[in-house]
Write a structure and sequence with these properties.
Helices cover 32% and strands 18% of the residues. The protein is α/β, with parallel strands linked by helices and 228 residues long. The protein has an eight-stranded parallel beta sheet with strand order 1-8-7-6-5-4-3-2. Strand 3 (65-71), helix 3 and strand 4 (89-92) form a beta-alpha-beta unit. The longest helix has 19 residues, at 155-173.
Length: 228
Amino acid sequence: MTDRTYRIAPSILSADFARLGEEIRAVVAAGADFIHFDVMDNHYVPNLTVGPLVCEAIRPLTGATIDVHLMVKPADRIVPDFAKAGANIISFHPEASEHVDRTIGLIRESGCRPGLVFNPATPLSWLDDTLHAIDLVLIMSVNPGFGGQKFIPHSLEKLRAARKAIDAHRAQTGREVMLEIDGGVKVDNIAEIGRAGADTFVAGSAIFGSRDYKATIAAMRAELGKVK
C-alpha cells in the first residue's frame, strides 16, 4: 500500500448552476476534499465560465479548499481578485503568463498556494525552474476548455515523469508538492491514474453526473485503496 494521501476534487464545471450553493454543500457532505473551480475566458480556451464573484458567493458555504484553475490569458490581472474571493490554491498555465516566476510570486503574495498546469502537449521541462516555488502540479488529461471529455492515455506517462520529479524534490528538500490530474477521471480508471502517481483527482461529470455523490466518491476512494 502507498502512504500517499488522496484528495477528491469535484469540478463545479459539471454542477447544476441553477442550484450551485446546494451542489457545493452536497458534494462536500459526500466527502469531497477540494472544490475545483474552472475559470475560462473564451480567449486562452474556447469557453467562458465563472469569475471571482461566483467564488466569493460559494466561499461562505464550505470550509473545503477552493482549488482555482485559471485558463485565462493574461493570468496576473485576475489573481488578486480570486485571492480576495476566498481561493486557497490558484493554478495557471505557463503559456498564459509572460513571466511565469512573477505569476507564481504574485499568487504566493496574494496569500494563496501556487500551482502550474500542463496541457497534453506542454513539456514538463517548465518544472526545472519552478518546482521549488509551487505547491501543486496539475496534469491535464484532456485539452482544456470543456467538461465531459475522454481521458488521454498518454497522460499516464506524463504523470509518472511528474511523480518522479516531485519525489526527487521531496527527497532533497522535504517539501510536499501535490500532483493533480484533471480530465476524464472516473471510478473505473482512478486506480490506474493513482498508480501512475496522482494524489489529487479532479472529477466533474463522473461525480455531478451521478445520482449519489457520496456513493461515487466512496467508490473512488475504494478503488484508490487498491493502489499498491
